[in-house]
Target: N-acetyltransferase domain-containing protein
Amino acid sequence: MPTKELEIETMARMTDPTNALRLFQHAFECGQIPVEPGRIDPTLMFACDEPNGRARFNYMRVEGRTLSTLVMFAHSDMIEGHPCFNVGYAVAEAFQGKGLAKSTQVAALNEMANGLTGARIPMIHVEAVIAPENFVSQRVATVIFDSAPVTITDSESGLPALHYSRRIDLPMRAGPERERATLR
Ligand SMILES: CC(C)(COP(=O)(O)OP(=O)(O)OC[C@H]1O[C@@H](n2cnc3c(N)ncnc32)[C@H](O)[C@@H]1OP(=O)(O)O)[C@@H](O)C(=O)NCCC(=O)NCCS
Model:
């Protein structure tokens, strides 16, 4: 491999959810992911997995046989005893620039909050880690994160990154509707 290509190949990069979108597309085509419609928005598809032994909630928009949009909430660390979810999103190239990332992120957050309501979890934290040069992703983040990001060093790549975070209070459902979520 020419040196330049090798350099690019080995250069540290931040996690790109496009790779997850490709894997989900493949699994979807093979019928390997059991998806279910959202409870609030039945056009939003939901699938849960545990890639690193931790819950990840995945929300998808499907156009025919193609996954146009993927929004993932991966359970990361606990913050003051409350679960924190790291959000990642990707839109297939042919569907970009149509507002799908922004609208799907909002719909997915509503679905997740609704799903966790009544799970004896009073609040969650949501965070995003975005490369400073990824201006489009930063535009998408402003839809659910209302405060300015903080500059950090991304723990995966060691690169500078923007850290967005938000605390979300969940209403507690009383009585027989109460469910228990299994978050690790
Ligand atoms: C980031 C990504 C998910 C955005 O998806 P999208 O559906 O095209 O985004 P939206 O259409 O909702 O647009 C969000 C904003 O970016 C703008 N935008 C979208 N594509 C753009 C482009 N190519 N150039 C400039 N602006 C663009 C939109 O106009 C919109 O601006 P607004 O907030 O002023 O309305 C998509 O580009 C992608 O999959 N990128 C690769 C994966 C990635 O970077 N994920 C985020 C990692 S943290």
